[in-house]
Amino acid sequence: IVLLIFRDLPDDPAVEWDTQLLATLVLKHIEAKNINLVVTFDAGGVSGHANHISLYTAVRYNVCKLLWVPPWAGCRVLVLESVNLCRKYISFLDVLISCLLPRDALFILTEEETEQAKRAMWCHRSQLLWFRRLYLLFSRYLVVNSLRLL
Q1: How far apart are CA 54 and CA 60, in angstroms?
Q2: Where are the domains of the chain?
Q3: Long-range contacts of 55-59 (CB under 8 A, 24+ apart)
Q4: What is the pLDDT of residues 129-140, one digit of tens each?
Q5: What is the edge-to-edge ordering of all strands in the sheet holding 144-149?
Q6: pLDDT class for 1, splitting at 50, 70, 90?
Q7: Pairing mode of beta strands 37-41, 76-80
Q8: pTM of the model
Q9: Within 13 A of 58's CA, how many CA atoms are on the CB side?
């Protein structure tokens, strides 16, 4: 089963994942772990990443089940706000903008959390292309994340 999932859900920014398969996997995980809050990408996938957009689509497909059907009743979904390129790369300066704009939740990372996120990115050296190195230096997502309820 694991090989099937890796084949059908490749880590590739250009590949859309199967909505039905992903929706089923997400629901099974929610049920197995008794999850009551899901945080995912929005329809923009933060950077247009097809895998991220597919995850949003699968979760959105399941929202009625997540909110109304036991055992998922009461599970809430927050989606990470995709922002324009300028805001994406102004780092901590976006905290001021994010505080002024409407949102359902705002997370401002501590310095320790930012460093942890950077260390996690370095674990994926094969994907750490030049533009992702800029992301590590300037991305607002390593400092502030605004979310809205789905």
Answers
A1: 10
A2: 12-82, 84-145
A3: 55/17, 55/22, 55/26, 57/19, 57/22, 58/17, 58/19, 58/22, 58/23, 58/26, 59/23, 59/26, 59/150
A4: 888 889 999 999
A5: 37-41, 76-80, 144-149, 105-108
A6: very low
A7: parallel
A8: 0.86
A9: 23
**Residue listed under structure tokens 């099974």:** 28
- Span 30-74, pLDDT tens digits: 888 989 999 999 999 988 999 999 999 999 988 877 777 777 677
pLDDT digits (tens, 9 = 90+) for 71-106: 767 789 999 999 999 999 999 999 999 999 999 999
Q: Where are the beta strands (DSSP E) in the chain?
A: 37-41, 76-80, 105-108, 144-149
- Whether 106 and 145 have beta carbons less than 8 Å apart is answered as yes
Distance CA 78, CA 37 (A): 7
The candidate with the shortest Cα–Cα distance to 85, out of 48, 57, 122, is 48
Residue 2 has pLDDT above 80, yes or no: no
Structure tokens at 139: 């991305």
- Buried/exposed code over 50-70 (b: 16+ C-beta within 10 A; e: otherwise): ebbbbbbbbbbbbeebbeeee
